[in-house]
Amino acid sequence: MNERRGLYPAIEPRETGMLDVGDGHSLYWELSGNADGKPVVFLHGGPGGGSIPEHRRQFDPARYNILVFDQRGAGRSTPYASLEANTTWHLVEDIERLRAMVGVDRWMVFGGSWGSTLSLAYAETHPERVTELVLRGVFLFGQAEVDWLYKEGGASSLYPEGWDDFVAPIAEGERDDLVAAYQRVLTGDDEAAKLVAAKAWSKWEAVTVTLLPSAATEEHFTDPEVAIAVARIENHYMANKGWLEEGQLLCGAHKLRGIPGVIVQGRHDCCTPPRAAWALKKAWPQVELNIIPDGGHLFSEPGVLDGLVRATDRFGG
Prior knowledge:
By secondary structure, the protein is of the alpha/beta class. The chain has two domains: 15-141 and 244-315, Rossmann fold, CATH 3.40.50; 144-241, no CATH class. It is 40% helix and 17% strand. The chain contains twelve helices and eight strands. The protein has helices at residues 53-56, 88-102, 114-125, 143-150, 160-167, 178-186, 191-209, 215-222, 224-239, 248-251, 275-283, 302-315; strands at 15-22, 25-33, 38-43, 64-69, 107-112, 130-136, 261-266, 288-292. An eight-stranded mixed sheet has the order 1-2-4-3-5-6-7-8, with helices on both faces. Helix 3 links the parallel strand 5 (107-112) and strand 6 (130-136).
């Protein structure tokens, strides 16, 4: 009973496709597992991170009908790294379009990091469509959370050498607002400067999401194909405060009452620290909050993964 759970064995999607959601965007989607099983939608992080095969393996394929998709501009969705018509509320309605495509009235919603933000925005907008919520590394898009990552004195205090690499592409006179400074570069015409900035932005994320240094994670995040989408889309959302009013998701948490939920939160998560998960627990007392004492941010860390798979097993019946 004390052995930690891991991913389910590798499976291939039984069906894949592209869904035209308007505004020039087409979303890559895949269905895996049991077509007659419990429906669940997986919401990846970033924003802009895209999906990977391991995401579908957090669910028992015998019990779940698993929808994984790439959000606007991310992964295999097109147009690549596009910022046009790419907001939280576009994505919320995209999820509804996907639900209608799958042909289910209600489903479980599972999201980590930015995916937790999007899960909450969707569930508070369409609570009648949500059977359960499983969240990891809660990010409520409060200004203090954004400042923790992108202003000196937050995560920079823990990773000073990583912070120096992060600010390096920005002129010293522009570092008072790094999100705005990066936005100018990432949306500019200098392609070489854009790539340098994208890799620095994404490398900073790789530094903060790992509990222990991981060369593989850093290599993944700084791959140009990953870095451009992550940096441009993530920066776009940060610059626009996620199109959320300050405290909006906490204020709307009363809409979640009656929806069973589990939060899996790493105690040492330096990307999305536990304070936001604790605030959500206080606003939504019915949710079960599991703080993993040896966990960081990534879903693949043993304690975090154990908590997530146990939650999906429980809700899978």
